[in-house]
């Protein structure tokens, strides 16, 4: 090192941090050079778990040992997830050491060997998971040990409670606090942004925290963000709810049930059907948000998350039973999960659908309006804001007479100010390759096209559907319009759309 | 790109490969830039599984998306494991696409949900695992689903058979083929290099394939390599065995039961006690090597792999039963697993112990000689080369009269020529901090010190023990000598040895 070098050497046991810009899909990874003195003196090896400390914060990361020349021996590289979790900045110097032994893994092993998870065991495991102390392999082991029907009711309640305890909680004054959740699996279906203004316009309280997209082209938080700020802290959320009765904000900003966010990243690639984990995931978020009444929208269909009526009724019962043990009133609404709901797929296009329904535009998507009114009606009945059997018609009236629209604008203003959703500069129509009846659409491929076009990162990007299942189309008639933020993204999406043409829309000759 | 650039652009769907020099502990990882056209047009995302094709070979790797500037958008970076598996060279251009769906994962899910693994299911799963098609998360899921006592005898046999079928096999002419295996957990204990020459000197056939160290300071292959080449192909192994009756070679060069090598890398960090997997791992290697008679050395002790007598007898029965189903004669010898066997820890130091025993040096480690004679005696009796009850004394005689030593030299010459083990240039004595009786040694910390000194990568590095458990030591008396290849490595090991002084050797005042 030259005498006039501006950066003094880091103290023993520490290294200067470097942001590697490597997206490892949430797993915190640490990169150290094979010639690094800390690596040697601590005896770290590839795949060692290493505790990285910066200021008062520590994370545990998995080590990858680098012999290439893009990392120097006096640097510690961090993956994007590790950089974010540690809250690091350029030039920071961090300490590196062996993490304390992970005692709670003993409970996971005991569960693998067939013993039941006690509340104490669940608390220990979930606390460590929420703190990021489990490697992805250890998370996969825990998820597998809890999959299928391997968790009974008591164990599911124990995990749900532990997940609530391991994060932040929101507290509300006496009285019902309404919430809703969609089990998921179909694009569009952006009912939350309609249900919240309807319910709050009828006097119910509904502080709604939503997620951003993980693998879908848009989450409710992404869609709402095209109309108003969603990244609110707890005091701000409470002010909004006091003033308007409700909110639609991003839950990630308030750390409700953080263990759930960690578990989701390994559950998804394993694609294990784990009822206990699903119930714990849904209800822990709701309990942490301070809800008292929870309505679950459960779309049922072959390409939805819940594929048949038997699975739906088993899951519904588990949600109600665990909800009861947690002190929550849970109602489950089974809905049609065969096709997308609404026309837009992607944040701004879905927001446009929501606005059209709220404003009562004649061309607005009727299916979205109807689905939202049905769900809002259930909530109104649960919260005693409508008599049994009258909820849906009350909700429809609130939509039609503009009360929901006024309430929605009020909520947006309270969250920081309403804005216009962006509009895509690049568009291309995808047309029917032949005449016939559209007998089906592939929800997954539609989602893929929307993501290739740039959704949700580019909020204006996505798909605008022009035909529905059952409609007759002429050869050359537009099936949907691609929206993109750049000509390149438009070309990627169009290439895929053309290559997968017959699979996205299935057209049968008449 | 400049007009006179020597490298033409890669064809569509392909990228130029780059060796990143990142050790991900065996997991094949692919690094693509977030601005990469293939990444966009194929719709790959962080954690996507991607099939990388080069010539006739394909591997499946996990994608990490890079936004840093150390990778260019027209390159595909490979981790060390991916580079090696693909057999890539600098400048190679590879194709990148979505891998076919992993159908066998359905069998893993079925096992998680409580159904039994059939032979067909085991074959499908193990074939995909051996081909590297499972991600580490999916491997952890399979390992967890098979852990504890979740595999019954038939399922264990099915997995063992599948593991043999998924790799290469060695074939031998009619007659007994002897083998031995140590379940492991204690340093030193380098008996194989004594048992093979004793057994073959008595007329038995013993083509021994051994492993290199994974987490220990030395494997038998590492130790043998300090005396003779071990990296032989199958025809060479067969010539050596025809000429001498035996061999001691590295099994990794001949791809016996490759699924086992893949599974081991996730079993280790999970530390799940999985009897079925352990039995399948041991016996699949032996069956693939063409063995007919297998002796298992099972050290039992609180810091060994098998911790108590009950666990030992359950495991022994499973080994015998599965062995029988595979057509193998299996005998299990329970041995003392309380302490290291021999004095050296590290390849060259363990080789020195072996040579001392073979040459009958008066100062050679008696415990190693005795353990080897006992195990060889069992093998002689199994192979009818000694009458029942006389095996150990026959083996001792063969050691004492030099026949084993001559046979060992013959084997080394046939494997490519005998050589002298290297000697460490840097040494340091670690002395007793006080007087008293050594009442115990920590095998794991001893192994750690030896590895910090450089073992097994630096073959001359390791530990030379001077005192045994039960001996009285004076303050300042040498407990052991560190051997290292460089002053830096010596300093690392000595620092740790001093910091952990009381834990490595436990000395009690008299």
UniProtKB/TrEMBL annotation, chains A, B:
Signal peptide: none annotated. One of its GO terms (biological process) is pyrimidine nucleobase metabolic process. GO terms for molecular function: 1,4-alpha-oligoglucan phosphorylase activity; thymidine phosphorylase activity. GO terms for cellular component: cytosol. PROSITE patterns: THYMID_PHOSPHORYLASE (PS00647). Its EC number is 2.4.2.4. It catalyses: thymidine + phosphate = 2-deoxy-alpha-D-ribose 1-phosphate + thymine. It comes from the Bacteria. It is an enzyme of class 2 (transferase). Keywords: Glycosyltransferase, Transferase. Residues 437-503 form the Pyrimidine nucleoside phosphorylase C-terminal domain. SMART domains: PYNP_C. Pfam families: Glycos_trans_3N (PF02885), Glycos_transf_3 (PF00591), PYNP_C (PF07831). InterPro entries: Glycosyl_Trfase_fam3 (IPR000312), Glycosyl_Trfase_fam3_N_dom (IPR017459), Glycosyl_Trfase_fam3_N_dom_sf (IPR036320), Nuc_phospho_transferase (IPR035902), PYNP-like_C_sf (IPR036566), PYNP_C (IPR013102), Pyrmidine_PPase_CS (IPR017872), Thym_Pase_Put (IPR028579). Belongs to the thymidine/pyrimidine-nucleoside phosphorylase family. Type 2 subfamily. This is Putative thymidine phosphorylase. It comes from Caenimonas aquaedulcis.
């Amino acid at each position: 090192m030259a005498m006039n070098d501006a950066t003094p050497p880091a103290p023993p046991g520490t290294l200067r941090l470097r942001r590697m810009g490597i997206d490892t899909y949430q797993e915190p990874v640490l990169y150290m050079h094979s010639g690094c003195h800390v690596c040697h003196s601590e005896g770290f090896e590839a795949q060692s778990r290493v505790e990285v400390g910066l200021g008062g914060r520590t994370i545990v990361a998995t080590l990858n040992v680098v012999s290439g020349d893009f990392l120097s021996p006096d640097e510690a590289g961090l993956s994007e997830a590790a950089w974010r979790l540690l809250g690091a900045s350029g030039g920071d110097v961090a300490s590196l050491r062996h993490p304390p032994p992970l005692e709670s893994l003993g409970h996971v092993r005991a569960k693998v060997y067939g013993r039941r998870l006690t509340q104490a065991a669940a608390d220990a495991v979930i606390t460590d998971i929420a703190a990021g102390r489990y490697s992805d392999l250890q998370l996969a082991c825990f998820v597998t040990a809890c999959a299928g029907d391997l968790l009974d009711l008591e164990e599911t309640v124990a995990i749900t409670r532990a997940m609530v305890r391991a994060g932040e909680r929101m507290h509300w004054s006496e009285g019902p606090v309404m919430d809703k959740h969609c089990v998921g699996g179909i694009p569009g279906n952006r009912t939350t942004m309609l249900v919240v203004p309807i319910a709050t316009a009828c006097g119910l309280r509904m502080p709604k925290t939503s997620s951003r997209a993980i693998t879908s082209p848009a989450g409710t938080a992404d869609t709402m963000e095209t109309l108003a700020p969603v990244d609110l802290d707890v005091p701000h959320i409470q002010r909004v709810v006091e003033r308007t009765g409700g909110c639609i904000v991003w839950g990630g900003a308030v750390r409700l049930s953080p263990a759930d966010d960690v578990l989701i990243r390994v559950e998804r690639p394993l694609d294990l059907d784990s009822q206990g984990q699903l119930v714990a995931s849904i209800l822990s978020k709701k309990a942490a948000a301070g809800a008292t009444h929870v309505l679950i929208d459960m779309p049922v269909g072959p390409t939805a998350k819940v594929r048949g009526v038997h699975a739906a009724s088993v899951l519904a019962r588990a949600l109600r039973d665990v909800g009861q043990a947690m002190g929550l009133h849970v109602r489950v609404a089974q809905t049609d999960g065969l096709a997308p709901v609404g026309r837009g797929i992607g944040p701004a296009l879905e927001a446009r659908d929501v606005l059209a329904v709220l404003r009562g535009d004649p061309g607005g998507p009727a299916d979205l309006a109807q689905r939202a009114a049905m769900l809002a009606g259930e909530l109104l009945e649960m919260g005693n804001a409508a008599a049994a059997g009258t909820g849906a018609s009350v909700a429809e009236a609130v939509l039609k007479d503009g009360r929901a629209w006024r309430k929605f604008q009020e909520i947006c203003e309270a969250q920081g100010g309403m804005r216009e959703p962006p509009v895509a500069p690049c568009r291309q129509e995808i047309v029917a390759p032949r005449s016939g009846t559209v007998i089906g659409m592939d929800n997954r491929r539609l989602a893929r096209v929307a993501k290739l076009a740039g959704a949700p990162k580019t909020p204006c990007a996505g798909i605008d559907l022009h035909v529905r299942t059952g409609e007759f189309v002429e050869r050359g008639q537009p099936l949907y319009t691609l929206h993109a933020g750049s000509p390149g993204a438009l070309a990627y999406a169009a290439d895929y759309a053309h290559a997968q043409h017959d699979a996205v829309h299935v057209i049968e000759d008449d």
